[in-house]
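Schema walk-through. Below, the input block comes first and the output block second. Nothing else is stored per chain. Lengths vary across the set, and this one has 76 residues.
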Amino acid sequence: MIDRAEFLERHYTLAELAEAWHVSRPTLRGWFRDEPGVIRYGSDKLKKGRQRTHVSLRVPESVARRVYRARTGRVV
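--- output ---
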């Protein structure tokens, strides 16, 4: 069951977090790729004739805080 607060919580794009934290989007993609709670959408299956796929990530504020704290040791 999803807690109502979790459901309505602010979700960030990697671009928003990259700008706020002064970290590149590729770096953040690695940090959040397998993080529980991150919303993934798009296709990560290889299509015939394509080498790259596109998967967008939306990061809940609570997950962003947890990862930031783990990476920097600072509380936000």
